[in-house]
Amino acid sequence: MRDLKDIELFLLDMDGTFYLGNKLLPGSIEFVDTLRKQGKNFMFLTNNSSNDSESYAEKLRKMGLDGKIEVFTSGDATGIFLKERYGTLRIFLVGTKKLAKTFEKYGHKIVQEDPEIVVLGYDTEINYEKLAKACIYLRKNLLYVATHPDINCPSLEGPLPDAGSYIALIEKSTGRLPDYIVGKPNPLMLEMVMKKTGVSREKIAMVGDRLYTDIEFARRSGILSILVLTGETTLEDLRNSSIKPDIVVENIGELAKLLQKESGE
Prior knowledge:
CATH superfamily of the largest domain: HAD superfamily/HAD-like
CATH class of the largest domain: Alpha Beta
Number of helices: 10
Number of strands: 15
CATH topology of the largest domain: Rossmann fold
Structural class: alpha/beta
Strand content: 15-25%
Number of domains: 2
Radius of gyration: 18 Å
């Protein structure tokens, strides 16, 4: 297993790993301070495509995180992937206004008529008209891409239906599954990160709270995996799962202490 001291870039899941709801989790600031002191980098990596990277960065600032904040969403990864693979596209989007803004940032155009592709994200502004129109277009055999596969999104009130639940609904109606699902655990997400940062995979670690997205993503991508127990996964879940992380910590503050110990601080 790679040593933590060899890692240059830590990819951090957000909700359940660094914060929960609108509150930072224990040790979050200590972890960032440790990385900055050691000259290491971090990037927030989230499957949640309902917001754009700028909105997430602003949320983190309001919770007390200062300095440079870099956020990479499954929306960003999908926008880059589509542009590299197909060029700029006319997209019928099942997604939020902020996700539309993300795609436009990469040169794509959001349209209601004559699209080249249907893209599905975590749409917290969803309505029947969008779903119906998406299904009509998908029956015409248009390219179909989802930003990520998460079935539920965590909240303080409990799990809420996420993009994976919409994928299941659309499959029931049309018989179609996405041609590509870009977000974690698909290694495509890491390829987009490496293109953006220039850091090689052996120097990257993934820190997250979900076995089937964060840890499975790291496993498929060939990077170091670190599970925190502040979010979805419990010790019982871990014992019963075939997906095993390289490192398990109670919270991200405990990971900061491991880094300090390895560097002799």
